Structure formats: structure tokens, C-alpha cells
Predict the 3D structure of the following.
Amino acid sequence: MNEADVYAIFADSIWATLIASGPVLAVATIVGLGIAFFQALTQIQEMTLTFVPKIAAIFVAIVASAPFMYATLSQLSDTVFDLIVSGGQ
């Protein structure tokens, strides 16, 4: 195993993390923007209004995308464990 292989594993790890967290981050961004627009239109500046819907939406997104996140991270871990078993060759 050389430096290029280690770099490839790190790059795959970063991509798998970004892909697995993407759906939850997208939901949080969309809900946050929707709440911000609602607050700007109605001039309601209540702090709890931003947290409660966003937390609920993130929880639903985590539950809904859990199989996708598991499959992505499982594929990465299978690849890494196969490299460990083969001795990095």
C-alpha cells in the first residue's frame, strides 16, 4: 500500500460522508430558508419558530434516509475491510 492508495481511501471516505449527509443537509437548508422567508414576510422574529420545525424536519429526514446512509457507509467499510484483509494489495 502506497501513498496513492491511502489518498484514494481518504478521498472515498470524504465523498461517502458528503453523500450520506447530503439529504439531511438539503432538508435542513430548505426548511431553514422557508422559515426565514416566512419570518421576513410576516415580521415574526420568534427564536423557537426557527428551531422546532427544523429539528422535526431533520429527524424525519434522518429516519427516511437512514437506509441510504447505511448503504453508502457500508459500501465504504466493506472496501476498507477488504483492503485490510488483503494486506493492502
The two ends are 6 Å apart (CA to CA). The chain has one domain: 3-85.
